[in-house]
Amino acid sequence: MTSLQKTEDEVMLADAARSFLDDAAPIGHLRKMRDECRTYDAELWSQMAELGWTGVLVPESAGGSDMGHAAAGILAEEMGKTLVSSPFLSTAVMAATALRQVADDRASDALRKIAEGQVIYALAVDETSKHEPDAAELAATPDGNGFRLSGTKTFACDGMAADRLLVLAKTDEGLTLFDLPANRDGINRDPMDLIDSRDAARITFEDVAATGDDVLGQVDDAMTVLKPALEAGQAALAAEMAGLAAGALDMTVGYLKERKQFGVPIGAFQALQHRAAHLWCEAEVTASAITNAGRMLDENAAEATLAVSLAKARATKTAELAVKEGVQMHGGIGMTDAYDMGFYMKRARVAAEWLGDYGYHAGKVAALRGF
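Above: the chain sequence. Below: its structure as tokens.
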């Protein structure tokens, strides 16, 4: 059985990422962006591109580092520890994975731009409060040699900063994925006020013209391109949530060591020790599931669905436990804006819904296991 421990190279990558992010994007960076009403930091994204992170899933032939999904998960996990707000998941992970499914010059050029940090993508997939790609109703009506798109998408993360959109639409005999410039006539984007201060948009398509060249993959066959991209995003998001849980746990343990009652640190109280130990155990099991998902995507992506959904389901519950315990063990101050624990709770809540909630992924796990 393959070990689920990080390799020496993976540990080095995590350490290098942590060193950079502690300086460039600590938790205070998110607080500052929130206070300035900003959801995107172009300078930080440029720095990530210089480090090669934007090309983590881009082939070397297109200028990327092609480090793989396990490496992408390690980067996402480190970002989660300080709640970095960036287009990494939507662009470097999901869009790059989708484009890799298409072997043509246009896709290669788009991948090169992703690796260079020159373009930001958002996925316009969801239409309701729940993730259900197969139920997409945004209409792509035939119009001569092209299409006209009409409908609304919601919860398009990084949708306001995006230069391009991957749009899932319903065509005559199935679903089709379009790669469109975000400023095309008829596309209107409105910011969503998410509690975690992350960029997200509600996007309306009003008789938007699309040609055959705008189709990514084949007409009526979106999932051949989109399914690998969504699973790559779900695995990386699970890793980000594991990092979030680790960040919340570290903050909580630090507080338990410092806060005193009756002259002794509250961390000396056995009841709190048991709760912290339980959280640590849950985080360790989840970390193994996430490592397995990344490696499955690298080694046998066609059979990775179970591993990915298990990772996202476990990460959702572990992150929820971490932030709830963190707030409770901080006491009343855990609910105040003066302490950063609230940022972790808000990010955990939004991440739980993005790309499928616990019920969505638990259902997939149950079905794939024959229940």
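The mean pLDDT is 95.
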